[in-house]
Amino acid sequence: MSEQDPFEPLRSVLERHGQLQSRSIPNAQGTWILMYYGDLADSKILQTQVIPPMQEKAPGGVSLETLIRHLPVDQQEKAGDIDQVVKRLISGWTLLLSRTERGGYLLNTALKIDRSATSPEVESQIMGPQVALTESLQTNISLIRQYLPDTRLRYASYQIGESTHTEVMLLYMEGVAPADEVSLMKDKLANVKFKGITDSSMLLEKIDDNPESLFPQMIASERPDRIVLNLIEGRMVILVDGSPFALLGPSRFFDFFKSAEDRYLRTNMALFLRLLRLAAIFISVFFTPLYVAALTYHYQLIPSNMLVPLAQSRSKVPFPPLMEALLLEFIIELLREAGARLPTKVGQTMGIVGGIVIGQAAVQAGFTSNILIIIVALAALSSFITPVYIMGAAIRILRFPMLLLAGAWGAVGIMTGVSFVLIHLLRVKTIGQSYLYPLYPLQFGKKQLKLPISRRSLSQDIYEEPAGDAR
């Protein structure tokens, strides 16, 4: 950088990255120069926090080091090599130089496009706080801090993405979260390699212990209250700048069937709802395969008073039970995906009307039976009871291999599929911990087996034992 004119050598490099703007402010010792990209820097910050203090100090001609102390900009850095300067400028920062001094300073004047906190849309509920995270990392941290003003809350910041340089923040409670789990997660985040990241869900496949597994190992949540309660219980939270969802971990299999609203209900009500969700898993995964297996291989399992109506409903169906079930399951998935991609009002109308019209037309045309439509609709409805969307999607996908196994080997095929799934779940780890805890490994205390659903686990009080003991 030239001593006489630090502006000219930088112009040829910086103008390749966008429309570079500069402003010169004369002072008693020379000229101060501000360099920034007009479409990235916030003009309000420049006009209120940067330029007025510089004009006040101009008659005295102070040094850059003295001037920088009088600028009320939160983030300031000393300018280093050209790569650092370019990265900061294309992120909205401003470079402050002087024609009579070497070096310069970078000021965070980035224009942030943000929205105010709104009610949760994905994790909506009746009871509890009605506020959700936003796309702003600082806003999300402020929301969490409002609920959790605890000095033990710690942060670890990372820059992820070769092109996006997205800020990722790891939050945990020191002395509450197990040190070995925190260390493992820090290593995972430090070694993540991405060309670009725009949402927290993109991190899941990179930091999961078993990325090839169908079952998720971390919960994505938009609710600050759920995040805070997980932090207090010794879990970790990952926030990504630009994403309105936080990742909670370690998350076990049974955690995906706990709703944030359960904590605001009476114990017996919450227990009933959790049992209902677990029953919905069985209905969603096994009802249609059991229908196919019974009609194909196990007629003796069908009650005698149901044989006549079942035979009448299938009298015009030209397909075997397996093809009939796969056809309906495929149509249900098409309707669900189409409804999710269309605008909200159009999607709801299309899902309801399309389901009724297609179902009624399929029965009248003889492509399927009334009984199977009821079974498939009940299985699809049960899959939506799961509070966490990604787990519900995994359960819906699991139906298809179960259907194929039921059509190939009947009840033996279903049990084979269950065995493989169970073995897989026993092998899955989440941040080094068992995915099926507390069912596996078995924990005996005071001659009692700790079950996944108990009065203690549903208590609204914070766990009394240290977080490391429960793991």
From TrEMBL:
A single GO BP: spore germination
Cross-referenced InterPro entries: Spore_Ger, UPF0353/GerABKA_families
GO cellular component: membrane
Keywords on record: Membrane, Transmembrane, Transmembrane helix
Keyword Membrane: yes
A Pfam family per the record: GerA
Residue ranges crossing the lipid bilayer per the database entry: 275-297, 371-390, 402-426
Domain of life, per lineage: Bacteria
Family: Belongs to the GerABKA family.
Name by which UniProt lists this protein: Spore gernimation protein
